[in-house]
Automatic annotation (TrEMBL):
Residues 1-26 are annotated as: Disordered. The lineage of its organism: Eukaryota, Viridiplantae, Streptophyta, Embryophyta, Tracheophyta. Residues 33-79 form the F-box domain. Residues 1-11 have a biased composition (Polar residues). This is F-box domain-containing protein. PROSITE patterns: FBOX. SMART domains: FBOX. It comes from the Eukaryota.
Length: 401
């Protein structure tokens, strides 16, 4: 006769509880596993915002809370603003190839070159200014109805923009694009200036604007100045600034013009400063860095530079911040046309052309130290780029709401 094992009520209760524990065990483990991550959101926000954007991108899969945070527009803007991680980007895109020079993976103070390709065909493109890590990508050679995109160079996200069917694309001689943002409304806008003639006094520039997320470009009429070459604007305090020839107190001269992103209007012409030896000094570049506008002037025969910043934006007053003599710049060799291509954190980025390639040279305004960052670039226009995780598709959705 087979012996049957007796089971007491206490054992039944114990076995039943074991089964219950077995059923809920996976859920309990999951909660326990992630419970240490469930810090207050403001603390989590503060910790993550101190990390490089690349590191935050890798942590997206850690938990749902972190994934949600990395899609929050406010957090991503904060991460971008506080980031001290820069790369240098070539602003000329040939055959869809994006070329970056990354300091985080370089050595000896020099960046390492990396590259990738976008599906843009064989056309050449140019990058506009950068806003929140985004840039406007437009067909570099003009032509009928050129394609335009919003690009995040770090995440490689590309968003195609609608074409302007009413634009004079075929007839335009000079063209300039600027990207800006209305912080109050959270709207990103692209401003296009184009000229239909080669003489700025006879052919004022036309202005068009596109609000990201809408379907159409809008014409704003004529700008208060003409264009005779390609000048890129800079963005500061929700306004785009251009250097161009315009009428100032009845006289045509080189001026600064301000375009409000919010009001979509140009302001009055702003006079430029008068550098030393003004008859032999020529304007070379307009840049934005550290919340200031920077103007550079150069005497080509003596290799002498002056750098001015706008001190008072209400009264439009300028102050000379730096002057660089030939001896200060002797280590820079022969800087191509004295062109300052960017300024960031006290470092000036010059360009130099030797041995069939473009070189980037960094000069520190405080220490006077200079060194070559890289050699042999194919493009002639570079810029410091601060990394960002903001998606071009996400800002399009914001504008639609």
């Amino acid at each position: 006769m087979e012996n049957k094992k007796s089971i007491t009520p206490s054992q039944v209760e114990e076995d039943g509880s074991k089964k219950k524990r077995n059923k809920i065990q996976p859920e309990t483990k999951t909660e326990t596993c992630c419970s240490w991550l469930l810090l207050p959101l403001d603390i989590m926000d503060d910790i993550l915002s101190r990390l490089p954007a690349k590191s935050v991108a890798k942590f997206r899969c850690a938990c749902k809370q972190w994934l949600s945070l990395t899609h929050d527009a406010r957090f991503l803007r904060s991460l971008h603003v506080t980031s001290s991680s820069y790369i240098i980007i070539d602003k000329y895109i040939v055959n869809g190839k994006i070329e970056l020079y990354d300091f985080s993976i370089g050595h000896g103070g020099k960046p390492m070159k990396t590259s990738y390709r976008l599906n843009l065909g064989s056309k050449d493109y140019r990058l506009s200014n950068f806003v929140d890590g985004l840039t406007c990508l437009r067909y570099g050679s003009g032509g009928p109805k050129p394609d335009m995109y919003l690009l995040n160079p770090m995440t490689r996200e590309l968003q195609k923009l609608p074409k302007n069917n009413n634009s004079h694309c075929e007839a335009c001689v000079h063209e300039s694009f600027g990207l800006g943002v209305d912080m109050n409304m959270g709207l990103y806008k692209i401003v296009r200036l184009f000229s239909l003639g080669r003489h700025p006094a006879q052919h004022p520039a036309h202005c068009e604007i596109y609000t990201v997320g809408t379907r159409e470009w809008r014409s704003l009429g004529e700008a208060p100045f003409g264009m005779w070459c390609y000048y890129q604007p800079v963005l500061l305090h929700e306004a785009l600034y251009w250097i161009a020839r315009g009428n100032l107190q009845g006289e045509e001269k080189l001026c600064l013009f301000r375009f409000s992103i919010k009001d979509e209007k140009f302001g009055s012409a702003i006079s430029l400063p008068h550098p030393s030896l003004s008859s032999r000094m020529s304007y070379t570049s307009l840049k934005e860095s550290g919340g200031k506008l920077w103007l550079t002037f150069r005497n080509p025969t003596e290799n002498y530079f002056e750098i001015w910043t706008m001190k008072d934006y209400l009264n439009n007053t300028w102050v000379k911040e730096y002057q660089l003599h030939n001896g200060d710049l002797s280590s820079l060799h022969k800087v191509y046309e004295g062109d300052v291509i960017d300024i960031v954190d006290g470092d000036i980025l010059f360009r130099d052309y030797t041995s069939g390639g473009w070189n980037a040279i960094s000069y520190n305004l405080c220490s006077g130290a200079s060194h070559t960052l890289f050699l042999g670039g194919k493009g002639s226009d570079f810029a410091f780029y601060r990394e960002s995780l903001i998606s071009p598709k996400a800002i399009e959705g914001i504008s639609k709401t």
